[in-house]
Amino acid sequence: MADVVVAGAAGRMGNRLVALLQEDKELRLVAALEAPGHPALGRDAGEAAGVGRLTVPITDDPEAVLGKDRILIEFSVPEASLAHARLAARQGGRAVIGTTGFTAPQREELAAIGRSIAILVAPNMSVGVNVAFRILADMARMLGDDYDVEIVETHHRFKKDAPSGTALRMAEVVAEALGRDLAKTAVFDRHDKLVERTRKEIGMAALRSGDVVGEHTVSFGALGERLELTHRAQSRDNFARGALRAARFIATAKPGLYSMQDVLGLT
Q1: Which of 153, 149, 119, 125 has the alpha carbon at shortest distance from 230?
Q2: pLDDT 10s digit of each residue in the chain, 267 long?
Q3: What pTM was estimated for this model as a whole?
Q4: How far is the C-alpha of 145 from the C-alpha of 94, rounded, in Å?
Q5: 141, 97, 160, 172: CA torsion to nearest 10
Q6: Distance (Å, rounded) from C-alpha 142 to C-alpha 135?
């Protein structure tokens, strides 16, 4: 049985992780974290998640709860996730991070942390989305430069980063498959460009509406036809279950930086 620490335990994803951990036969919740000043501090994590008392209080002291071989599962903000990952490395822990919005230097630091502990970083923990990443690469290679690539994602009104980490990863997968530099070909806004679309650009659009959990569509369009791959998430449970699957993988993994592709055997 591997010990798990859930960071962001009172948030939407944290609540589902706490709840679903009660059904898991290989993982057990031993601690719950939230940001300093959060109104849920001191509450029982199970009661906050609606599954009854678990005698696991929500705390803001990561140093007290992150320890050797304990697995941090984190869906929060880049700064907090990175700080917790550093601490996990110092204490000999492990980490599964689903936070999005990391800068390039922050991603480099996470890779460096992976040289000392097992850490998995994924912009989307959904099994379906990660299968889509693999399929997208094949689609892009087979269709080639004759097809225009556009990515549209929709999320709930509370999401802060745009485009989503999943949309950006989809764009990276397509760009890599087509031999393109995404930094030079990505287009996020066309409202002031009175020019035709270039053949090799990869367009991305972000919609924020209501309580949409997450929808992503990658469109490959040519003259006369369009081929689309769409993933729709109806519940956060698919992300939480993917994160728990990742935690079971990380529990026995050697030090390294891993992705969901490793968990699913798609590498």
Answers
A1: 153
A2: 999 999 999 998 999 999 999 999 999 999 999 999 999 999 999 999 999 999 999 999 999 999 999 999 999 889 999 999 999 999 999 999 999 889 999 999 999 999 999 999 998 899 999 999 999 999 999 999 999 999 999 999 999 889 998 999 999 999 999 999 999 999 998 888 788 999 999 999 999 999 999 999 999 999 999 999 999 999 889 999 999 999 999 999 999 999 999 999 987
A3: 0.82
A4: 41
A5: -10
A6: 11
Alpha helices (H) along 100-164: 104-113, 127-143
What is the architecture, at CATH level 2, of domain 127-233? 2-Layer Sandwich (3.30)
CB atoms within 10 A of CB 169: 22
d(CA 13, CA 98): 10
**What are the structural domain ranges in the chain?**
2-121+236-263, 127-233
Is the separation of the CB atoms in 130 and 266 below 8 Å? yes
In CATH, what class is 2-121+236-263?
alpha beta
Q: Which residues, at least 6 apart from 4, have a Cβ–Cβ distance to it below 8 Å?
A: 21, 27, 28, 29, 30, 70, 71, 72, 73, 247
Taking each helix axis from N to C end, the angle separating 78-91 and 104-113, rounded to the nearest 10 degrees, works out to: 20
Query: Catalytic residue positions?
Result: 155, 159
- Taking the CA atoms of residue 174, residue 176, residue 180 and residue 183 in that order, the dihedral angle to the nearest 10 degrees is 90
What is the distance between the alpha carbons of residues 262 and 251, in angstroms, rounded to a whole number?
14
